[in-house]
Amino acid sequence: MALTKHSRITLNDGHKIPVVGLGTYAPEEFPKSMVEEAVKVALESGYQHIDSALIYGNEVEVGRAINAKIADGTVKREDVFYTSKLWSTYHSPEWVRRGLEKTLKDVQLEYIDLYIIHFPVEFKPGHDLMPTDASGKPIYHNTDIRDTWKAMEDCKESGLVKSIGVSNFNHKQLEYILSMPGLRYKPVCNQVECHLFLNQSKLLEFCKSHDIVLVAYGVLGSTRDPNWVDQSAPVLLEDPVLNAIAKKHGCTPAQVAMRHMLQRGIVVLAKSFKAERIKQNLEVFNVKLSEEDMKRLDGLNQDRHYVEYKWTDHPKFPFHEPY
């Protein structure tokens, strides 16, 4: 089946996820009005999938943009696939619903299409999103993630969310949920950093074997936020192989990087706050990579994470595992 901007992948619970979405994370120095405008441009351009999270601190603006485009007839609510994420201070079962309700209030929607556990690492429960002790160290907590998952299942059964999944989980953490007694719903997806320098081939194979969709963030490299990213890391979109293939196809390096993921069966989140780039990225469906192109791009993998998470001493830190 040919990929188009309206293509969707059927999730293991029967709901369908659009194969390309707009990512909305931005470093703190970006004004939130830029996010609001970007979401409006995306919906006007044909995007149907918007990805945000409580910790991004911009769900009010994202929701305002979605509701404005519903109100003016650009889109219908049922055509917009909205993803949000349960932050790490809401893992305790009694806090899961509170985290969801905060997102629903901020975004002013009656339901979330996809709600995912943002990160397996947990902090002290509460509304303080980055709790620290007197010395500035994060205050950890360690709820059994299966108990968190049961509360996520309850949210799905309440009708407040259509589908539930996870993010940044390794295969062992996924297996732990999949093997839990009384499991009502499998995670529909695992959203992870995935790009040409970190192609996640083993994790993708594992997810496909369990009918879990891999959703890729950081596909174009990263925002190079100095808080999270090694500034000496190579710039993905400047890679010579990527640029040679883009030149051959008469398209942008970003389109090739996205298309490579799409042809592997991965859902792609592309992030830009520039109207021209937002529209350009959706033209990825005009590009078709050959088998040789795909092999050359596969060869760029370095197992390199751009995002450097700082909670490596937490018992559930996921990236000590190779996949």
What does this molecule look like?
The structure is a single chain. This protein is α/β, with parallel strands linked by helices. It has a single domain, classed as TIM Barrel (Alpha-Beta Barrel). It is 34% helix and 15% strand. It is built from ten helices and twelve strands. The strands form three sheets. An eight-stranded parallel barrel has the order 3-4-5-6-9-10-11-12, surrounded by four helices. A two-stranded antiparallel ribbon has the order 1-2. It has a two-stranded antiparallel sheet with strand order 7-8. Strand 4, helix 2 and strand 5 form a beta-alpha-beta unit. The longest helix has 15 residues. The radius of gyration is 19 Å and the shape is globular. 43% of the residues are buried. The model has no long low-confidence stretch (mean pLDDT 96).
